Amino acid sequence: MFHFHAPWFALLLPLPLVIRWLLPTLLKEGCDKTAEIRFPALHRLSAVFPSYGLRKSKQNITFFCLLFLSWILLIIALMQPEKVDQFRQIKNHGYDLMLAVDISGSMQALDFSTPDKAISRLDVTKEVVGNFIKGRQGDRLGLIVFGQHAYLSVPLTLDTLSVDRMLHDVLPGMAGNATAIGDAIGLAVRTLRERPEGSRVLILLTDGEDNSSSIPPVEAAKLAKQYGIRIYTVGIGKKGLVPFPNPLGGYGMVEVAMDEELLQEIAQETGGHYFLATNQQMLASIYANINELEKSEANETLFLIREPLYLYPLALSLFVLFALTLSRRAIYGS
């Protein structure tokens, strides 16, 4: 960005014109004090040298214009032109957010489909949670995926793009077809417990009921409470018969269950909230709500990097003055 640091010096631009045309009396008085030689037949000289007066007039106009150009360049230098680059430094007082996502076989259920497109629960989860991740700049995010077993897919990091990429790479059933909610909570506790107090948050999303944990989910929630970890639980999908993809093609109806009471108890135990999403709009609204509940505070500092440019017009002004001096000496002699 280009601007002038001292633009008020532009008020001096018309000063030579003021001196030249608005104060003729001073110039006249100065001329009266000098000696004059009067030639009685001046018209004869004009007849002998008809172009001398015109040439001299043009020389004076050119000299004055160049002198005024030098003045303009000098004023521009006084106005201190500079190139300014802005640099913003944002210091976040962020959260340590661990995202636990169920990728068990039941996440293949197609109850989020539209009339013209088959959409699974995991597809919707990737889109909605991915958008949530992208909006948490300045927070440390981690990713746990769980099915029959729980795995730390991404440790806590400020690189939200990597978390989003890893989430989009998971496939349903790659951690087993069962659901280990308690193990996912226990793994999150082990990861978050060393983080600063007041910033530890776990967002757990599942569509089923715990059936393969080595740690009972409620006991894991109590352990999370001891370490000041707040847990938000999100139930996704409908209960009962839902469409399910058939490996041989097409789809069939499969009975699925969700332990809402367990998810409510986990959230209540740790001071969090339980949410249920049966369509994509509800899920997006839930994560927007959580985003507001756990909003990070940020302090922004603006730095200005200034590059002064006054040397360029100053050098040009001096060059014009030097050229005028040489030209006058060449005309009138040294």
Task: List its traits.
six-stranded mixed beta sheet, 2 domains, Rossmann fold, single chain, elongated, about 325 residues, three-stranded antiparallel beta sheet, alpha/beta
CATH architecture of the largest domain: 3-Layer(aba) Sandwich
The string of secondary-structure elements, in order, is EHHHHEEHEEHHEHEEEHEHEH
The CATH superfamily title of the largest domain: von Willebrand factor, type A domain
The strand line-up of the biggest sheet is 5-4-3-6-7-10
Overview of the structural elements:
- Helices cover 43% and strands 24% of the residues.
- The chain has 334 residues and is α/β, with parallel strands linked by helices.
- The protein has two domains: 2-30 and 45-84 and 303-332, no CATH class; 95-295, von Willebrand factor, type A domain (Rossmann fold, 3-Layer(aba) Sandwich), CATH 3.40.50.410.
- A hairpin with a 5-residue loop joins strand 8 (240-245) and strand 9 (251-256).
- The radius of gyration is 40 Å and the shape is elongated.
- The model has no long low-confidence stretch (mean pLDDT 83).
Offer a quick outline of the entry.
This protein has helices spanning 15-22, 24-32, 42-48, 52-78, 121-134, 160-169, 181-192, 217-226, 260-270, 280-293, 311-332, and strands spanning 2-4, 81-93, 96-102, 140-146, 150-157, 200-206, 230-236, 240-245, 251-256, 274-277, 297-308.
